[in-house]
Amino acid sequence: MTEISSRLEVEDLQQNLRRVQERLAQKLEPAVLRSELELLHPADTAYILEALPLEERLLVWDLVRAEREGEILLEVSEAVRESLIATMDSKELVAAAETLEADEIADLAPDLPEEVVQDVIRALPQEERVLLRAALSYDEGTVGALMDFDQVTVRADVSLEAATRYLRALDELPAHTDQLFVVDRGGKLLGTLPLARLIVTDLEREVGAVMIPESVKLRPEDRAEDAAQAFERYDLVSAPVVDLITGSLVGRVTVNGVMDYIRATSSESQLAEAGLSKEEDVFAPVWNSFRNRWAWLAINLVTAFIASRVIGAFEGSIEKLVALAALMPIVAGIGGNSGNQTITMIVRALALGQIQSSYWRKLVGKELAVATLNGVIWGSLLGVATYLLYGNLALAGVMALAMLLNLLLAAGMGVTIPYMRARFGQDPAVGSSVLITACTDSGGFFIFLGLATLFLV
């Protein structure tokens, strides 16, 4: 059922996009397109903006009502957000930010000019100003940067009936409210009261008697990765954030914020593996795309040159046995694929905090064992295929041995590359695909051609 719903949602988004593109192509009255945009959720409008080339994107952006700009800026990707903000003056940016909550402004602040952030702070009421300054004080990648301040609290000494009346008096509950936070007079968190328990329990009982005193609690300084793992492990919808020293309730983290964080980090990890330093707008100017891509391409060029020199060192062997030229890409290609499998597993395990320093040797041993098993099986099959093609038993043996050795190299480097990057405080995902391919290409060519020179030429 979920799969069908997701497919329908994507189809609806694409239909909205096509309709906007048709309106732009027909050059209809702007009011027609503006009225259609008004009906869309901010996330849907963000999807449309991301899928349009820059010129059309800015035309659509000009039609968005000012009071909706802040919500949409939060939804679009960072790269597209930069292109939109670049077209807005300070007054527009301040007006857009003022429509948001303090924690949402904090999410937007890194992409805003410093003077705009200061203007927004000055324009906010005192209470919101304090919350915004608090939100801005937390480093990116921490729980404090994920949390919001919109939560419902109750006292432990009130009855469930009083708590229910209090909830009914509110205009609406904050999004993703699945529990109330029970605090004392000083704001210290005592426990949580799930709404499900509130509904089914006798209303004459006190909150303190039915609350859950021990619940998952986060601290602002905790890593966002830890919060994401806690939400996944315990199937949380929301979790309180408490001060480390006083135990006072500071805010809460919701599944919505955690999902946004997971999506962002997953996207960054995928880009980093290919050597891209940041998310790129698919319709970005050529120069911007070039600046984002050139560095690791330069590294790749150097490693490819090294691989070519390895081949060049064995030109005499290749001239004497032309079959080597046809077979050596197989060894390098299989090694590269195996290395990418290993490095993907290691990077993922590092991101989830599953690898402790004392277990690296065991991990290397395990990956080498897997490579040995794969090398023996697939190397033998490849050796048989080589013999059937060329009728040369020695060449078949060299092919099988080269496959085994290159898979062992791939496994070793697949663990070593992320380990060394993590050891020196670098992101283990950055450029991992480029580096492992360089190792297995050069190493595979050297191993195969070296063995061929020793035993065949």
How would you sum up this structure, described in words?
Helix 12 links the parallel strand 1 (153-155) and strand 2. Mean pLDDT is 86; it is low at 1-8. The longest helix is centred in the last third of the chain and has 31 residues, at 360-390. This protein has helices spanning 2-26, 30-38, 42-50, 54-63, 66-75, 78-85, 90-98, 102-108, 114-123, 126-136, 143-146, 160-169, 195-200, 207-210, 224-234, 255-273, 286-312, 315-320, 323-351, 360-390, 393-423, 432-455, and strands at 153-155, 179-183, 189-194, 238-242, 249-254. The chain is mainly α and 457 residues long. It folds into 3 domains: 2-141, Alpha Horseshoe (MgtE N-terminal fold), CATH 1.25.60.10; 153-272, CBS-domain (Roll); 286-455, Tetracycline Repressor, domain 2 (Orthogonal Bundle), CATH 1.10.357.20. It has a 3-stranded mixed β-sheet with strand order 1-2-3. A two-stranded antiparallel sheet has the order 4-5. Helix 20 (360-390) packs antiparallel against helix 21.
Q: What does the secondary structure layout of this molecule look like, with pairings?
A:
Layout: H1 2-26, H2 30-38, H3 42-50, H4 54-63, H5 66-75, H6 78-85, H7 90-98, H8 102-108, H9 114-123, H10 126-136, H11 143-146, E1 153-155, H12 160-169, E2 179-183, E3 189-194, H13 195-200, H14 207-210, H15 224-234, E4 238-242, E5 249-254, H16 255-273, H17 286-312, H18 315-320, H19 323-351, H20 360-390, H21 393-423, H22 432-455
Parallel strand pairs: 1-2
Antiparallel strand pairs: 2-3, 4-5
Helix pairs in contact: 3-5, 5-7, 7-9, 8-10, 15-16, 17-22, 19-20, 19-21, 19-22, 20-21, 21-22
